[in-house]
Amino acid sequence: MNARPTPTRLPPTLVRLTGPAPAGTLVFMHDLGGSVFYARSLVQQIADRVGCVGTRLDAALSADLGQLTVPQLGRRLAEDIARAGLPGPLHLGGFSFAGYVAFEAARHLATLGVPVGTLWLFDSEILRKVPGFRPWSAPLAETRRVLGFVRRNWRVLLGGAPDPDVLHVYGDVPMYLREHPAGCRDIIRGLYPAMIAYQPQPWTGTGHPGRTVVIRGVLERRHRGFPPDLGWCQLLPHCDVVDVSGKHLSMMTDPDAVSQVATAVRSGLAAGTQDSDERTSP
Question: For position 6, what pLDDT does the model report?
């Protein structure tokens, strides 16, 4: 096990959610609103197994809001994660948009010589953004997107003015800012263009995470017709897929769904620890 001493103070982009635990450290990347509030229920159920840390926007990142790309955001967070000296093995996780940031952070950590044990992607759909994607390769999902986009934007399509509190570009998740705390709305406005423009590149070469796990909410209608890995196997050599009950949001909030997610994380961490011990044993 790659045990590293935990410093008394973390960089300003990191916040400690729980204390140390046997399976190392799991860093949850922040979502489009700049927080890891999505992970609060999950953290409560895995804190005895793995130490949990969250990322957040510090003053420097906030000053660049609206200009950062997803790879740049992942790189800057990865540099702070590497500098923090968190107890290993190190794991990364991200829900939805945060999965993009986790992927880019893991890639950059590899260039810094910091291996990632497990990359957890919680219902983070990347298929539409991978190189070479053709919309009609998933006709059912694409039809639902077309109908949903027209339903939400028919006034704009007929020449009306867009609602400034609704961010919706075809192919990306609509964001209704009134549903989010006032303090998050400017952050969402700033990061939304980065999500739209993000075009991930396949992770070639070495340094891949020891394991990548896609945890998918099977009741999410907009994923129907997509492959189970939600597109990640086109970017990484191999992905494991775990299905849990719930839709995109409820899988991180509904008690039954969160319990299933926690079970998957605990099992994955146990398997990763066993693999690490086997690799280091004489």
Answer: 44
pLDDT, tens digit (0-9, with 9 covering 90-100), for 60-111: 999 998 899 999 999 999 999 999 999 999 999 999 999 999 999 999 999 9
Q: Where are the domains of the chain?
A: 14-135+199-280
Q: What is d(CA 56, CA 31) in angstroms, rounded to the nearest whole number? A: 9
14-135+199-280 folds as: Rossmann fold (3.40.50)
Cβ atoms of 233 and 156 within 8 Å: the answer is no
Spatial distance between the Cα atoms of 191 and 185, rounded to a whole number of angstroms: 10
User: Strand, coil or helix: what is 169?
Assistant: coil
pTM above 0.85, yes or no: yes
The Cα 150–Cα 270 span in angstroms is 46
Residue (of 210, 240, 250, 208) closest to 96 by Cα position:
250
- Would you call 154 exposed, middle or buried from its count of C-beta atoms within 10 A (0-12, 13-18, 19+)? exposed
